[in-house]
C-alpha cells in the first residue's frame, strides 16, 4: 500500500527498448529516481531487478550465489551490473518475484539505494508536480 508519510521510494520495473540501450536513457531514469528521493527527503529507494543471465548458470549454482558472483565481478549480468553501477547495493534474492520470467527463473535481486542527504529531522515532502520535475 502507499503511505504518503513513508520513507521509501519503490522502484517499479524499468525497461529500455533493446534498440536504444547504451544510449544513456537507463542512467537518466535512475538519476531522476535518485533526485526525486532527495527532493522528497526519503531514506532510500528499494527495487527488484531481474537476473536474466541466471538461467545459464542455474544447473551450477543457486540464484543467491549467481548474484553474489555478479557483485564480485566474476559473472556478468546486464541488469544487476547496471544497477550496481548506478549506486545501488545488492541485498539478496527474492525467489518467485516474477514467476513468468524464464530467463531469471522467477528470481530477482533486491537492491537498495540509500539517500546520503536524508534528514530524519525533516518531514517527507509531497512529490513535485510531475510536469515540473526535470
Account of the protein in words:
This protein is an alpha+beta fold and about 130 residues long. The protein has three helices and four strands. Helix 1 links the parallel strand 1 and strand 2 (about 45-50). The chain has a domain at about 45-115: Gcn5-related N-acetyltransferase (GNAT) (Aminopeptidase, 3-Layer(aba) Sandwich). It has helices spanning about 25-40, 65-70, 80-85, and strands spanning about 10, 45-50, 90-95, 110-115. The protein is about 25% helix and about 20% strand. A four-stranded mixed β-sheet has the order 1-2-4-3. The model has no long low-confidence stretch (mean pLDDT about 90). The longest helix has 15 residues, at about 25-40.
Secondary structure elements and pairings:
Blueprint lengths: L7 E4 L13 H15 L4 E7 L12 H10 L5 H8 L3 E6 L13 E7 L20
Parallel strand pairs: 1-2
Antiparallel strand pairs: 2-4, 3-4
Q: Which features would summarize this protein structure in a list?
A:
four-stranded mixed β-sheet; 134 residues; alpha+beta; 25% helix; Aminopeptidase; 4 strands; globular
Amino acid at each position: 500500500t502507499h503511505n504518503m508519510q513513508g520513507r521509501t521510494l519503490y522502484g517499479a520495473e524499468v525497461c529500455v527498448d533493446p534498440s536504444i540501450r547504451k544510449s544513456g536513457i537507463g542512467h537518466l531514469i535512475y538519476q531522476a529516481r535518485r533526485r526525486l528521493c532527495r527532493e522528497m527527503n526519503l531514506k532510500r529507494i528499494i527495487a527488484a531487478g531481474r537476473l536474466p543471465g541466471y538461467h545459464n548458470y542455474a544447473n551450477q549454482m543457486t540464484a543467491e550465489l549467481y548474484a553474489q558472483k555478479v557483485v564480485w565481478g566474476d559473472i556478468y549480468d546486464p541488469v544487476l551490473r547496471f544497477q550496481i553501477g548506478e549506486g545501488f547495493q545488492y541485498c539478496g534474492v527474492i525467489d518467485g518475484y516474477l514467476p513468468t520470467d524464464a530467463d531469471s527463473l522467477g528470481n530477482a535481486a533486491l537492491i537498495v539505494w540509500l539517500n546520503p542527504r536524508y534528514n530524519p529531522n525533516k518531514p517527507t515532502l509531497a512529490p513535485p508536480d510531475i510536469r515540473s520535475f526535470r
